[in-house]
Amino acid sequence: MCVPILGLTATQGGLFLGSLGLGLASGLAQRSAARAAADQQYQSALITNESAERSLALQQEALADNLKETRASKAQESLAKTIQALQAKGRIRASEQAGLTVQLLLMDEGRQAANQREAINQELESFSRQYTRRTEGLIADRDNRRNKLISNINQAYNQIPSLGQVILNTATQGFNTFAQLA
């Protein structure tokens, strides 16, 4: 036998308490499901972040290898220009000419070789700056992905109703049920 609650008959009191219990159980189940979804989102984000880190490392390594190869190639090109200039100077000297003309030809050949080496150095500096910009771009892309993951995690955890919200919703449902039964 049930004791009447708040002026309700025994049957109404049973329905009221049953409604409160179901509302609380439903709220707690929703809270648990939301937490499980948020935890899954977090685990997925960890895996995605690890993948982004590996991708960044591989792309940076490829860029660094490319820069290293370019530097070596440009060093060989510069050395070849120096050798060509020395050979040209040797040919000028071997021509058995003397005087101011030979000196002018030698100086001109030296300037041309220096200009060619400077052009090579400028190309290499430009390539190095491009390398830096590309690396910074890769890092920015990784950071952007990471920020999106963090945002998704925060959204998922913000969807979890607090215990206070669950209790308040249960109480609201209880008052509505009471009003309908009374």
Descriptive tags:
182 residues
Give a verbal description of the structure:
The chain is mostly helical and 182 residues long. The protein is built from three helices and no strands. The radius of gyration is 39 Å and the shape is rod-shaped. It starts with 9 loop residues before the first helix and ends with a helix.
Strand content: under 5%
Measured on Cα atoms, how large is the radius of gyration?
A: 39 Å
Structural class: mainly alpha
Helix coverage percent: over 70%
- Please count the beta strands (DSSP E, at least 2 residues each): 0
Encode the helix/strand succession as letters: HHH
* Measured distance between first and last alpha carbons: 20 Å
- Individual helix count: 3
> Spans of 5+ residues with little confidence (pLDDT < 50)?
none
Rounded average pLDDT: 88
For the sheet with most strands, the description reads: none
Q: Tell me, briefly, the overall form.
A: rod-shaped
Would you spell out the secondary-structure blueprint of this structure?
Blueprint: H1 10-94, H2 100-158, H3 163-181
Helix pairs in contact: 1-2, 1-3
